[in-house]
Amino acid sequence: MKNLIKILSFLLVVSATNPVLAQYKQLDIHSKILSKKDSSVIGFVHIINLTTKHGVISDYNGEFHFTVNENDTIKLSVLGYEQLKLNAKMVPSTIYLSPKNYELDEFTVIPYKDFEEFKEAFINLVIIDTTLKMNQSLFMFEEDLFLFNNNGRFGVVVQGPISSLYDYFSKRGKSKKRYEELLAKEKYKSYLATKYNNKLVAEVTKLDDEKKIDEFMKYCNFTDEFIYKSNDYDIIKAIQDNFKTFSEK
Question: What predicted TM-score, i.e. pTM, was given to this entire model?
Answer without folding.
Answer: 0.38
